[in-house]
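Because showing beats explaining, we think one record worth quoting, sequence and C-alpha cells together, and here it is:
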Amino acid sequence: MNNQKHLPSDQEEELVDGGKVMSLWDHLTELRSRLVRSLIYVIVLFLIALPFSDQIIHFLRVPLTNSLPEAAAALHFTGPMDAFVSSLKVCVFVSVILGCPIWLWQMWKFFEPALYPSERKYIIPFAIASVAQFFLGVFFAYYVILPVALDFLIGFGMKIGVPIITINDYLSLLTLMILGFGFVFEAPVLLILLAMLDLIQVEVLAKNRGVVLVVILVMGAAFTPPDPFSQVAMAGPLYLMFEVSIILIRIIKKKPRVKPASA
C-alpha cells in the first residue's frame, strides 16, 4: 500500500514552474531517464568510432612514441585478445569524451528542479562552462602533462632497463590521466552549483584555503604519475580555478533570489 499523498495536478504544475517539490521516487525516475539518454548517445558514438579504432589508437600513442627511443617506439601486446579488447576500450574512451556535451547537459537538467526560477537561467551557461572545463582538462592532460610525465618515467626507467610498453598498460595510464583531469577540472563549476543550492558557504571555502590546497595536491598525486612536475602542473591550475570560483560565487550570491509566490 502506498500511503504517500499526491498533490493535485494543477498544484503539481505550479510547483514545477515555481519552486519544485519532487518525491524521492520522482528524483530516481528522473535520474534513470537522464542516465539512459546519456548512455544511448554514448553507445551511438561508440558505434561511430568503432570503424576508426586503428586511427584513434595511432593518434593516442603519439605522446608515448615521442618519449620512447626510436628503436623501441612501438606498442606491444602479450595476448591474442589484447589488441581487439584495446580497440573496444579506446572506442568507449573516445565516445565518453566526445559525448560529454550530452551527458553533462543531462546532468544539469537533472539539477534544474532544485534551483529557483531566477537561477535556472544559469543552466545553459553552466552547461557550456562544464563542457569547456572538461575539454580543457582533457587537452591539458594530453598535450601538456602526459608528454612530460612519459619523458620522466621512461627516462628514469631506461637508467636500469629497456622499455617494453604494452598497449594495456599505456591505455590504463592514458585513461586515468585524461578522464581524471577532465573530471577534476569540473570542480569549480561544481562548487558554484553547491553554493547556489546553499550546500556550502563562500566564507567557509575562503577560510579553509589551506585544506583545499591539500586536497588538490592529493588529487594531483592520485591522477598523475609520481613526478613532482605533473602533480604541480595539475594542482596549480586547479587552485587558480578554485580562487576564481570564490569570486564568481560572491558575485552570484549578491543577486537576490526570486522565490515562487505562495499559493
In short: The chain has one domain: 21-254. The radius of gyration is 23 Å.
